[in-house]
Known about the structure:
It is built from 11 helices and 7 strands. The protein has helices at residues 2-17, 19-38, 58-70, 78-95, 103-116, 119-140, 148-228, 233-259, 280-289, 306-326, 389-399, and strands spanning 40-41, 50-51, 294-298, 333-340, 343-350, 403-408, 414-421. The strands form 2 sheets. Strands 3-4-5-7-6 form a 5-stranded mixed beta sheet, covered by helices on one side. A two-stranded antiparallel ribbon has the order 1-2.
Amino acid sequence: MTTLSSGFARARRWLRDHPLAFDATLAFCTLVAMICGSFTAPGDGHGPPAFGARTPEPFSVFLMTLAAAALVLRRRRPMQVLAVTAALAAVEYVLMDPPAPVVMSTVIALYTVASRTDRPTTWRVGLLTMGGLTAAAMVFGATPWYSQENFGVFAWTGLASAAGDAVRSRRAFVDAIRERAERAERTREEEARRRVAEERLRIARDLHDVVAHHIALVNVQAGVAAHVMDKRPDQAKEALAHVRDASRSALNELRVTVGLLRQQGDPEAPTEPAPGLAVLGELVATFRNAGLPVEVACADRDRLPAAVDLAAYRVIQEALTNVRKHAGTGARAEVSVVRVGATAEVTVLDNGRGSTGPGTGPHAGAGPAGAGPAGAGQGDDGPAGGGHGLVGMRERVSALGGTLSAGPRYGGGFRVHAILPVEARTGEPERPGTAGGTGLRR
C-alpha cells in the first residue's frame, strides 16, 4: 500500500512539473469518455441507458477528436480552446441526431477559463456558453426541449463555471496567505536587524561617553602629576589619587555597559542603576578636581523618567568633557537643568576661547548638532574630525523625541542646549535611584 501511494505521489509530481503532458493525458481520457458515451443510448424513461445500442457516426468521431486535441492547449489559450470546443459541440447538436457527447470537452474548457480569469469574465463567458449550447440542444435535438438531456447540458456547463471559480478563489486565497506570511517574515527580520542596530548604536554611545570623559580626566590629572612631581609631591599624590578614582569609575561604568551584552540569567550580571542626575554632584566634582570650575543649577522638581534622566546626565558629561578638552585654560562652565512643562531643558555654557587655535575645536563655527555644514569643524568630537561626541548627544536626544543645539555664544564660549520630553518614547521602565537628588544650586 505504501509503494502504491508513493508511486501515485511521484506520478503526480511528474505531471505537475510537465503540464503539457498532463493536458495531453487529460485530452486522451476525455476522448475515450466521449467515444464511450457515444455508444450509449438514453433510456426510455423506464430503465437505465443501454450501452451498445447505437454506433457513433464517423463525422461525430472526427468532431470528438478535434475537440479533445484542442484541450492540449487549454492552459496556453483557454479562451480560444473554449470557443473551438463550444463551436464543435454546437455543430454536433445541429447536424447529428442523436448527438455525440462532444460537449464534455466544452465543460473542461469552461472550467479552465473560470479557474484562470476573473469572476466577471467567468460570469459573462459561462452564461453565454451555457445559454448557447442549451438552446442548440433544445432547438435542434430530436428529443423534446424539456428533456433531461437538454437540462443536463445546462447543469454540467454551469457546474464547470462554478467549480472553476471556486478553484480560482482558493488559489488567490492561498497565494494571499503565502504572501502575507512572506511579508511578515521579512518584516520580522527587518525589525530584528533594526533593533540590533539601535542597540549597538546605544552601547557605542555609552562606551564613547564613559571612555571620553574618564580618559580626558585621567590625561589631565596625569599631566598635573608629572608637572609637579619634583617640586610638590603632595599635590602630585593628590592628582594621582584623582587618576585612580577616575579610572575606577571608568571601569565600573564599562562593566555596567558591557554587562548589557550578557544573556538573561548569566552569572554576575550587573544590577546597579545607570548613572543619572542623582550622581551629578560626583560628576561635577571630577571636573572641579581636574581644574575646571563648574557651577550647577538644577530645579528641585519631580523626578525624571529613567531614560530622560540618563540622557540628561550623558549630555552634561559629554559637554563638560568637551569644555575641558577644548575651552582652554581659565575657562568656566555653567550647568542648568530646568523642568519646563512637559519637557526638561539641559544647558551647558562656558566662556572658553578654545585652545586649538581659531576656527578649530567645538568652540568655533559649530551650529546645531547634526545640522549639516553648520555643525562641521567640531574638533575631535564633531563630524569633521571623525569624533562622535556631538553626534552621539544628538542621537541620544533624538531617540527620546527631543532636540539638541550646539554652537558658539555671542561674545565667546560655547553653548549646548537640549530639550528632552519628560514622557520618553523608549518604553524603558522606571528604575529607582536614577532620577532623584537633583538638589539646589551648588
